[in-house]
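Attaching the record inline, Q. Sequence:
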Amino acid sequence: MKFDCTFFEDEVREGFYVSGIMKRVWAAQLEVLEEIDKVCRKHDITWYAYAGTLLGAVRHGGYIPWDDDLDIMMFRKDYDRFRELAGDELPQGYVIMSMHEEEAAYEFHTRITNSHEINFSKDFTEKYHQCPFIMGVDIFPIDNLPPSGEEEEKWKELAWLCMHAAETITSENKDTEEAKGILSQLEDLCDVRFDDEKPLKQQLYEMTEKIFCLYNEFESEDAAIACYWVEYHKDKYSLSWFKEKTMLPFETTMLPAPILYDEALRSKYGDYMKIVKGGSDHDYPFIVKQEAVWKEKTGLEYPFEYQFSKDDLYCGERLPARRSKTEAEQFMALMERAHGMIATMLPGGNVGDCLKLLEACQSRAIYTGTLIEEDYGEGSVTVGILEEYCELLYEIHELISEESITENAAYVIVENMEEIFKKLAESMKQEVFNRREVVFMPFRACYWETMEPVWKEALEQGCDVSVVPIPYYEKDAIGKMTDIHYEGDRLPEYVPVTDYETYDFEGRHPDVIVIQNPYDECNYTISVPPAFYSRNLRLYTEQLVYIPYFVMDEIEDDDEIGRSTMRYFCTVPGVVCADKVVVQSEQMRKRYIECLTAFAGEDTKQIWENKIFAKGGKVI
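Structure, as predicted:
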């Protein structure tokens, strides 16, 4: 199957954060489904999207954003036919799990997986879109129900008794009087005898399945996923809904559905177009358990998981600020001291030392002006005043070296020097010391809109603003960087762009750097170049600001699935290393602080309180 590379990036769908690894899970599951479909098409076996997969196709045109599995259903005759063929027809390495296999999975459905273990081999990860985990599809059988209500009640009663026995009778308690009584009752009702040489639990499950499929389509107008209908009184369907099938778009493919899928979905979910997050019968995401197995088996750190270090909270010694600013500060201090010394020495006739001081001031003024011009360009008022200053120093130098200076003349010279010092100090304050440079570093053009308001804020404040888009790499299953992409040429035409290869971070040392990719090396599918990781960038600025490129629904107190996704975007290097993090709301700020405190330790809570800000005030 073909997917555009952008499909695998983290994104927000329906207000829910979908991680890059979840996109890989989806793509890998669709590959498994395609193999199942090949078998079905070859042997004229009909199947339909089921449960959340059907709902996702109708409501979302693909996966429900907070769902992580694929479910399909088949009528019993197709289900049995597929199960008979699957072992020979599915690709080598595929695993079939059901109650009928040698290693019986005591379930009333069949699960098809692409492997029996996590696989980082090149062939495997290339086929399954860099997803090394075990991926599968669940296939549920649809059974016809008894033709009358009275007969159905008896059928359900017998099926429930058998299901209950399978779930509760074990090798440890099978010899109790209660268990023996239930087993004897089932033998009489079903006219069977349990074989002591075979696993009892498997026999009970297989007996239950035989009860489920007692009826055929000519005897009933309704059908059901029998185990759910018996146990929970749900998943009952009218056979009329399946008289034809229709194809519905699902991510990059099409899935078959009952022609009357609306009735089927309303029967199962009620108002199914109403968004309800949750509902999964397993922990989300299910790959967490496989990640734990991988770490246990290899003994290695998981390559996409950020390992917190308190060293990342503190930048240590940042590189020196911009040379022109540093030089200007030193020059103004020198100028003030030198002028004071000249004011003292000149009336006393100490001309020689005064000449040396004048020459030193002139030399430093020229050097300072050159640096300011290099950093801020020509036309600077400050550089103009420095040129005036140099002319004044030259005139004073010539004057005092050719004639003796009267006390009154010395006073005039000192006064002129004080006047230009005040003028230069004010200009330095406006153009150099209070002048701020802000660098914005988007990585995807489509996310610029989340950065643009702060960019405009910086422009309105009169900051020197540079937009330096950076490239990003795709990553494979083991975290290796592969194809590179650059989207700086896709930003709006009114946004001037600076080439990331020519911008001198060390030399310019911007006051603020604003980033929108927080992952550094800890993302499953993409990475910016290591030079632009947050822990590196903060060396070149006084303030590293992270603004998330996404806006999502608020995560409420009882939203466990929403909380589980935070490890993908909250406990990441950019959040820890940034000096300031600006999130979408006070509610989200609260969630970040809770998540980071649990991640890094209670003693770090105040750090997050001071670092995380809600959007609304000034950012720069």
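The two ends are 45 Å apart (CA to CA). The chain has a mean pLDDT of 92.

More tomorrow.
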